[in-house]
Structure formats: structure tokens, C-alpha cells
Amino acid sequence: MEEASNEPNGPPWTGEGPVRLVKTGIEGLDELLGGGFDEGSVILLAGPHGSGKTILAAQFIYNGVVKCNEVGIYISFSESKSDFFRNMLRLGMDFSRLEKEGKFRFIDALNVLDRRALDLVFSHILEELSAIDFKRMVVDSLTAIERIIDPGELRAFITATIIGICKINKITGLLIRDVIPESPNGVNSEVSFMADAVLVLEAQRLGEVTQRFLRVEKVRGRRTTYSKVEYVITDRGIVMHTPVRSLAAVKLDGDVGIGVPDFDRKILMGGVKRGTITLISGPVGTGKKVILAEFAVSGVLNGERVLYVTYRDAVDEVRRFFSDLGHDVEELEKKGLRIVYIDPSRNTPGRNYLALKEAYEAHRPDRVVIDEISIMDWLPRGEYVRLLNDMISFFKSKGATVMMSASVDLTKSMDNEVAKVVDNVIAMWVERERGSMDRRICTLKMKGKAHDDKIRRIEYKEGGIEVKDLDIY
Ligand SMILES: Nc1ncnc2c1ncn2[C@@H]1O[C@H](COP(=O)(O)OP(=O)(O)O)[C@@H](O)[C@H]1O
Ligand SMILES: [Mg+2]
Fold it and tell me: Domains (ranges, CATH) in the chain?
């Protein structure tokens, strides 16, 4: 990565040269901030209860020590030291170790209930500052201080005491503020006016789950994107959802099939191009899963690594399905097949993307199967389309050849989100004929290849998949 101070839009310049950037070390957040916070700046972090403010602030301090060797201090009016240490340890941050090493101080101000006690806390902090070279400070939270001193004094207290400490000592300060949703003086308070930067955490309901967003509302002297970005709280703390935006797909040679000569020749025109994304569409009962399974198997038999993502069935059900098709699933798993379940209903687009990315990175597959993507279409259309695009850009940037299924009948409508964004589209459907159900298949789209528009019959037999031309009447 480029050194932050060499950035084209550059940090603000002071008389002494460029301001040093203080990185949060949070995946995706520093990029969003244009490199990090300016040293000595005061940042307001506002958000509703449970939005992850304490976690984000803890990561800011923890990463400061671990990644940048900068000593931090955390002043908490809302959590006891033991609660804070225990909660953060669950997220992989061992503050007691940092404290022992002299790199971290926690000030427990839980019992501070009046002005006198508050002043004592800060005079104590000033003493510490003369002995230790703190670089980062968190005040959790201003809301608690607002309850202690009367509104008339608040502004002076924040400016003189908190901001003063930061500016004089070149400490980067993160001030937390609880926001009561829909409160008129929520974020647009005097505090945000005084702060050098304002980060706002927001949430929205998505079905059963909460989708969280971080918005950079202002950064003094800096150009930022100001768009809201989804973040997820994981057992490693906060992770920003910053998908690959590059259009540069990895270019690969060769074609990839499902290992059934008839199908590969007639339907895939010799095979889909390596590194492309294929949709197998069709309503229930058209045999999409058989095709996906054969695609996975032929990959493994080819010496490739294959990731099979299941959104609907449990991993064991998928294993059984492979066995029912006559494959030795244990052998396949030894050779490079990995089956992973992702829970669709509890996943926001950000969580989904992260789960796919982690599954990818843990296995580094050449082929990826997703059964079935349309299960995510409970998402609002915009979110669904964005998720699809993000997934596709990710897999393309990795050069993975992807085959995914969707429960849709494209003969009824081609206006389908998935069909639009993928490279290759195979449509399947069922027709009632002469007292039986006939499965039909047709190639609708095939990147970089000429294909015919023939509708064919597809049959699944003991011996495998058969693709037949229809009788010409
Ligand atoms: N391991 C975890 N995985 C997912 N979410 C978590 C995890 N640990 C805590 N959370 C979530 O983090 C939120 C609490 O974060 P916190 O920083 O204390 O919020 P705030 O300070 O804004 O009130 C809760 O919504 C909780 O569900
Ligand atoms: Mg908190």
C-alpha cells in the first residue's frame, strides 16, 4: 500500500509539514478515511446502543499498541475494567497483557457521579500524561459526562479538558456518544461541530437481522467518499464490508466442463471459459444440483480444488447427495472438495460476502459451486443485486470458475437479477408431454462463444446425464 502521506489528495499541511496519520488498523476503515485520522485530531463516534462503538474504540486502541506501538488510554464511564477486559478478550483483544506491558491504561470512571469526581479523573489523567507518552485516547462516553455536568458547562469541559488534552499532547482522541434514534439533536450537536471528524453508526432491519452501516460524516481538511458502508461485528471485532471494486478479472486459458461429454459439448459449447461465472437456472425438479455436483466432481478429478457452498442443505445432506450419485465423497474431500454451509437467513450482504471470502481463503479453490444463490432473494432488490455483483467481482479477481444455481424459470421472464450479471446462463424448465414431465435445457448466454439456440431434452439416468435433441416434427 502507498504511504499515506504521499496520497494524491494529501493530508492537510501545517507549518511543520504533513500531519502524521493515525491508523485504526480496522480492515477497510483506514481506506475509507483516506489513510487514517490526523494525529492529534478529535473524532466523534456516534451511534445507538449496541452498535459496536465500544468495540470499534477498543480496536482503535488495541491496534494502536499491537500494530503501531502507540500507547493508549481508555476512559470508561460505562463499563467496569473487568467487564471491558472480558468482553474484549472474547473478540481476541487481550488488554490485560497490554496493561502488564505498560502499553495500555484503563480508567474506570463508572462511579463518577458528580463534577468534583469528574475533575479528579481528568487531573489524574493529566498526571499520567506527564509520565507516559500516550498517543491514543478514548472517552466512553460523552453521554455519560452529559449526565454529570449541566449543559452550560459541557461545551467548555469538552473543549478545554478533553480536546485540550488531545491537541497539546498530540493525542488522537475518540469520543463516543450514544445516539437515541430519531432524536432531533442526535448527532448534529455542538460536539460534532467541535470534532475534527465524525463517524456515525447506523442500523437497519433486514428480515430477521440487523444490517449495520458506518458513515463518515466529516473529516476536517480531507476529501472522503461520505457514503455509508456496511460493517459486521465478528468474533474478531468490527470488519468493514469493502468489496473488491476492480474490474480486472484474472485472465485464464482453457475451458471447464462438468465432465459429461454430451452436456459439455452440446450445452457448454465445449466448456465454459475458465474464470467465468455460470448460472444454472430452473424451477424445482429440473436437476440443477446434479449438474453442480458433476461440475464439482470433474474439478476434483482434474486435480483442482473445489469449494461447494450450500445455502439450503446441511453439509451432510450434500455429502449424501454426492454418494447417491455414485461418488466416493470421502475420497473427493481428501482430494480437494470442501463443502461449506452458509446460513442465508441470518446473513446481511456484508456477512454473506465475508463468509464466502473466508471460505474461499481457507480453501483457495479453482472452482466454486453455490447452491443456490436465489435463496438470498429475500433481500431488498438493491441489496441482492449488490451482493451478487460483489461476489462476482471477488471470484473474478481470484480467477475462480463459478457455477451457481437459482430457482427461477427463465422461460417465464429473462428479467432476472442473476442472469443479468453472470457470464453464462443455462436455462432449464419442465414441460408436460404425452403424460409425462419432460425436462428441457437451453443455453441462453455463453461468454466468448457462439452457441446455438436449440432446446434439448435432459434426462438423468442411472448411467448419468443425457442430453438429447428433440424430435423434429
Ligand atoms: N462475537 C460477536 N459476534 C457478533 N456480534 C457481537 C459479538 N460480540 C458482540 N457483538 C455485538 O456487539 C454489540 C455490542 O457492541 P458495543 O461496542 O458494546 O456497543 P455500543 O458500545 O455501541 O453500545 C452488540 O450488538 C453485540 O450483539
Ligand atoms: Mg459501549
Answer: 4-240 (3.40.50.300), 255-469 (3.40.50.300)
